[in-house]
What does this fold into?
Amino acid sequence: MAQPILVPQVGQDLTEAKIVELLVKLGDTVKKGDLVAVVESEKASFEVEAFAEGIVISLPFAVGDVAPVLEPLMHLGAAGEEIAIDATIAPAAAPAANPADTGPAAVASALAPLRPGGNGGPVNAARRASPVARLQAAARGLDVADIAGSGPRGAVVLKDVLGLAHSAGAGGDMLEIRTLQSGQGTPVVFLHGFGADLSAWRPLLADLGLGLPLMALDLPGHGSSRGHHAAGFAEIVAAVGQSLQGMAAGVHLVGHSLGAAVAAALTERAGLDVRSLTLIAPAGLGPWVNGDFVKGFLEARSEPALAAWMRRLVCDPASLAPVLVRATLAARADSGLVPAQERTAIALFEGSTQLFSVAEALRRFLGPCTVIAGRDDAIISLRDIETSLPGNVALHRLAQVGHLPQVEAPRLVQALIARSIRSAG
Amino acid sequence: MAERELMYREALREAIDEEMARDPTVFIIGEGIAERGGSYKVTEGLLAKYGPGRVRDTPIAEAGMIGVGVGAAIAGARPIVEILYVDFAMLGMDMIVNQAAKFRLMTGGEGRVPFVMRTQGGTGGGVAAQHSQSLEALFYHIPGLRVIMPSTPADAKGLLKYALRQPDPVMFLEHKHLYMTKGMVPDGEHIVEFGKGDIKRAGTDVTVIAWSNMVPRTLEAAEELSLQGISVEVIDPRTLVPLDRAMILASVSRTRRCVIVQEANRRGGVASDICSIILEEAFWELDAPIEIVAGLDIPVPFNLALEKASVPQKDDVIAAVRRTLHESPVARAAG
It folds into this structure.
């Protein structure tokens, strides 16, 4: 089965990258870890590695081309495979392999999220809006095409416009929130873990294929919300809840680690209708966190040092792309980021102890909830998670996976996210 | 002002009694209204008080009764013609549509027709297709007629008294289910002008417009919705012609959502016309499509279960209100 290697995304605002070197040609056989290309953004160049074995069966770009990020840079497959058919992987779009789904329509729908317009385009391209929402948006200089609607089939209704106007007025109090993929229906909001930012979700979301609006935000002290200081876990939850207040009509939450704990806590927030929860390696379900990792990760200043700590995040060190380490390091070029994350760490952890728990919130949440955790997680303990999880939650334990299931088992994580969201109806 | 609790039928009787005492040109005719006091006991006791000259039984001959009434009104009297079921008023449609409704215009405004037809409609008790109709849309459609549909004893009394003092033909449409309902009625001279709606329950989230027997049903729905955290404003126009557009538009502009409930079947109904008025006048205020809850486009079934299924019930109103708020039709279990 063919797999795409995507043009990497590093940094939130990068929309395209220049191909400076192509180290493979059509028909070449590559194996996992091989360097296949070098691409260049405004600031730095990045090496692109193969994460699977295969033969290069498509190579749409030439050296010197400027390619949209997260578009396939090439596809790997078996000899003689045809890419138009093979691109229909998108497991989230069709979790149950159904022979009937391999027709032309299925091909088209699976390919759709990979097209350039799929990312960062208008969230409400059809401009569905109630009359009063349309009028009020116009009066405020807003375009309904840019507003995520909470009404039927994604229609913008009055409260969406008023919520947006309110948040614009609140200014610096709001967290950075981005629509990573447009769609219609109940939005899905992704919450990253400690030390990451919203761009960490881009590779996973590139071909999730749910058709819903996919959004992500930067937690306080992270990414573009680095200026927002939260004095504790409750303050983080309150800040995120405040930023999501325009989505009162319902939201699906997907969180990783700290973000998963925040997602679980948000189910208790009045005025926010959480339809489903997907928690990846969730924090807040036991006392222990790897305090050495938190300390070492924050203190690392060089690429080798950071790589040494970040390898603790995964089971198989080869699955940690050097580009991820470099992107994390590049983000730290902003002098404010590390101090902000240090403050956040102090508010959340005391040595190797997590100062917050969301076990009770999960017990009270009656919607579909899926937990995905690696058996080889070195940052938080699977045993703690197993001990704290209430019986109404589904737990998927992944062998040979560490703290980043979305990196080490992306297809499965995509499929489980889709299943969790769909089960909410 | 002091008030008393009266039944709907008692309130109507008080209105007729007071106006007959005040104005000697008021008289009432109908089937079984004198000796028997009327099938719904509205006219009980009036024969003894005013005599057979002003309280008169008629044969079963609706065309003749309506003709007598329209003619007497043209001649300067103030007749009340009681038609047992609105379904039977069809026998007098020529007198109503071609004579009563047109006479004022055809005489250059010199001739007036202060004719009041009291009748009742709606479903209730399995009286089958020819005794269960809600025919207000037929009269609503005809220029020149006033169409009055009170839902409470106080409105019934005040509107009937006003009807007997104004100069144009009035279709006074009561509901067979309402005669025994009770409500507070102000003491003394109580008059309700035409064209003034009434807010039966104030609310902020959704405006629900209902009349006649749909008002109590909608109030029950509003009560249940309030337990779900939804605040419903219930507006009773009381008179469909003239219609209190200002009250409707003001309320809808406030709540931005509207549900219209009518017992009559959907096609060509008054609800559709009110909906079109709102869309013309307040389109840019709306935050959700207008919902109409109406009877099915079928003759009303005789079977009680089917009869109930053919007209709006409380849960239909609740579901429509929730749809305007983009909520599922039924509230989810608490938790």
In short: The first helix of chain B runs from residue 8 to 22. The radius of gyration of chain B is 20 Å.
